[in-house]
Amino acid sequence: KVCIADSACAAMMGAGFEAEADRLVTREGDEIVVDGSVLEGGGQILRTASVLAALWDLKLRIRSIRGKRTKPGLRPQHLKGLEFVRDFCGGTMTGLEVGSVEVAYDPRGQFRERVARADDSIFGATHMVDVKTAGSCTLLLQTALPCLVASLLLCRCCPPTSPDSKRQRKGSEVQDPTQVLVLRGGTDVPFAPLADYAIRVLCPALLARFGVKVSAKVNRRGFYPKGKGELEVRVSLCERVEAAAATSTSEPRAAVLKHFKTIVVCGGGKPKDWKGESWKPLATIAEKMAEAALKEYTDDSTAFEKEVSCDEKSLSPGLSIVLAA
C-alpha cells in the first residue's frame, strides 16, 4: 500500500515533473493525501485516486479538488462518481457535496468482504447512476468500470462451491456473473470522450488487452445543456483473462488511412428544433468538416464511408462527429 504513493511520485519524476511530484502524494499518519491541483488540476486525479483507494483499502484524503479549473471543487458528475465508489465498494466518505474542495475516504476493507459474501450492493440488480445534468457518462464510466471489473475478478477467486457464490452453474460449467451499469447524463458533451469512443475504442481494447468483455450501447443521446442521455454497459470476463491479454498485438499506424468512416449523430430535442429532416444540412456540414480534418491522412486510395443518424429521443438538440479508421 505504501508503495503506491512512492510509485506515483517516481513516475512523475521520471516524466520530468519533479516539482509537482513532491506535492502530488504525501502521507499524514495512516492517510494517503493527494493534491488535486497538481498538473492539469482536473477530475482525473479524483477518479483515479478514489478507485485505487477503494480497491487497495487505503485511507485517502484529496485536497484542492480540481484546483486549476474555472469552477474548482466537485461538480455533479464527480460527486456521483464518488458516491458510486462508496456505495459499491463500501466505507465512509466525507465532503460529498457540489463545490467541495476536500474529500476524505476510509474504505474500511469492505470491498473484499462484500464480494466474499456476495453482497447485493455489488451483485444485486442493475447499477444505476444518474447525474441529472449533462455531466459526462464516459467520465463516470472511468470511475465505475475498474470497480466492476475488480468485483468480477475477486468473485472468480471465490470457491464456486461456496453457498454465497454468485457464480452460476450451467450444466457442468461454472459461469461468472455479468455486471450491468446504466449511466444517465451527457453521452456526447465537450471536454470528454464521446459515447461512440467507448463503444468503438475502449470496449474492443479491454477485450484484446485484458480479456474483459465490455459492451456498451446508447439508449438515448444526451447533449449539452439538458443531458439526460443513457449509456448502458455490460461487463463480464473471458474464460481465461491471462490468455486473452497475452494474445493482444499492436500494429503500427499507417501513414495513409485505407478506410475512413464519418459517423454523424444529431440530437432530437423539441419538435420545433428539428422539423422533419431539417437536421440533415447540419449533418452534411459536419461530414465535410470531418473529411477536411483528416485530409492529410487520406489520398485517392482511401475508401470513404459515412453513417448519419438522428436520435429523436434526445431531449436537447445537438451534434457529434466521430471519425473511425
From TrEMBL:
One annotated GO biological process: RNA processing
- Supply the Pfam families for this chain: RTC
Identify a single GO molecular function assigned to this protein.
Answer: RNA-3'-phosphate cyclase activity
Tell me which residues make up the RNA 3'-terminal phosphate cyclase domain: 39-243
Q: Which domain of life is it from?
A: Eukaryota
Choose one Gene Ontology CC annotation of this protein and give it.
nucleus
The parts of the chain that form a coiled coil are none
The record's InterPro entries line, in alphabetical order, gives: RNA3'_phos_cyclase_dom, RNA3'_phos_cyclase_dom_sf, RNA3'_term_phos_cyc, RNA3'P_cycl/enolpyr_Trfase_a/b
Supply the name of the protein.
RNA 3'-terminal phosphate cyclase domain-containing protein
Species the sequence originates in: Chloropicon roscoffensis
